[in-house]
Specification:
Helix content: 25-40%
Structural class: mainly alpha
Shape: elongated
Number of helices: 6
Largest sheet: 2 strands, antiparallel
Length: 171
Amino acid sequence: MKAVYGEYSLSRSTVPEWRKRFLEGCELLEDDARSGQANRLITPEIIAEVHDLVLNNRGVTVDEIHRLLGISVGTTHTIMHQHLKFRKICAQWVPHQLTAEQCNNRMALSLSHLQSYREEEYGFLSHIVTGDKHGVTTLNRKASVRANSGNMRLHHLQRNQRPCTLVLVRS
């Protein structure tokens, strides 16, 4: 049968099962309904509800969305990652792609930096402070480490969190 029908042929274990079902009077080829939580289809309304929840609270968890809307964790995960294109960075949901406004802001900031470079050459670089987890780990890892410089603060990430790079610009 594989030679004739290829991937569409039934497996050896399926043939006796279907034979038994047809002898019992079953004429449908679809699977029987399973017990447990019914699967809800991913509809535009559900996607909009999840989107509203995330916009109101970027720190909301998949489990909280699942409980609030009554949809499965898997469905919530699918909506977040495949439909809304969000991912979690530093415990907050952020879009995979920048919005038009974010692109414009990034372009304006880049042009501002370019203008500063043309006016001050490398002097403007002293106004940009960067740091990450590896730059402030000299003190106790469990304590919150603060690197104060004027009105700026870098907070040390807990050891079990992923590194997160911060870029702070002095005003």
